[in-house]
Please model this.
Amino acid sequence: MHLNKDYTIPYNGSQVFFKNILEYFEYRGDNALESAMIGKVIKHLRENKRLSQEVLSGLANVDRSHLSKIELGLRSPTITVLYKISDALGVNASDILKAVETEAIRCTTNN
Model:
């Protein structure tokens, strides 16, 4: 999910242009926006607790590379993984989902 400032991404040797970030997420698929928001919230909570991905993944018993892909929005966590991560962060899974909803609303009203 590496977008340039003009919302272009390399695709099959050329550049694909998007009008805004939401158009990019629509291009990626229905769950792409939610995946990115969940990852953003988890990363924010992890960094606020001053935990590395390595430490959080160990506490949550989740592979570090899987956690990284969740934080980057490349993968969506299953409910089980979401609960493991939220427990390791000391928050409720519902708090993560509420933060995702708030961020999605903020993102859609600003674009």
